C-alpha cells in the first residue's frame, strides 16, 4: 500500500480526536471546567463556531474548507507520489485534524474544544488542533531534511 504511514497517522489521529470529543460531550456540561493540574491544565468544554482563535466565527464555508482539504489530502495520498516518512506522518496528521474538526462543523455547526492550558493563557483547543500543528511541524522537518 502506497503511503501506508499516511493512512495509519490519519486513522489513529481521527480515532483519538473523535474519542476525546465524545468523552467531553458525554462527561461535561458546556463551559464546565475541571482542573487536571490546577492553574496549569484544565479540561474546559467550550464550542468554537469559527477557526483558530474563533476567527471567521459562524462562517459556514469553514465546514466545506475542512471537507475540501480532507479530500485533497486523501487524493494526494492515493494518486500522488510516494511521500517520504515525514510527509506521510505530516499529511496524515493534517488529514486527521481537518477531518475531525470538519465532522464537528457538519454535525454541530461548531468545533468542540476542551484542552485549556492556563499557565500560558492560551486559547482552548482540541486533539485535532494538536495534530494539525504536529503535521505542520512534520512537513517542516520533511522540507529541511534529505533523509527518509
Short description:
The protein is of the alpha+beta class.
Structural summary, described in words:
With 148 residues, the chain is α+β, with helices and mostly antiparallel strands. The protein has one domain. Helices cover 57% and strands 14% of the residues. It is built from 4 helices and 3 strands, in the order H-E-E-H-H-E-H. The chain has helices at residues 4-27, 61-79, 85-108, 127-144; strands spanning 33-37, 41-48, 111-117. Strands 1-2-3 form a 3-stranded antiparallel beta sheet. Helix 3 packs antiparallel against helix 4 (127-144). The longest helix is centred in the first third of the chain and has 24 residues, at 4-27. It starts with a helix and ends with a helix. The model has no long low-confidence stretch (mean pLDDT 91).
List the helices and strands and how they pair.
Blueprint: H1 4-27, E1 33-37, E2 41-48, H2 61-79, H3 85-108, E3 111-117, H4 127-144
Antiparallel strand pairs: 1-2, 2-3
Helix pairs in contact: 1-3, 2-3, 3-4
The ordered H/E elements are HEEHHEH
Helix content: 55-70%
Q: Could you describe the largest sheet, including whether it forms a barrel?
A: 3 strands, antiparallel
Q: Which stretches are poorly predicted, pLDDT < 50 over at least 5 residues? A: none
**Secondary-structure content class:** alpha+beta
Count the domains: 1
Mean pLDDT: 91
Please indicate the percent range of residues in DSSP E strands (runs of 2 or more): 5-15%
Shape: globular
Radius of gyration: 16 Å
Strands of the largest sheet, in order across it? 1-2-3
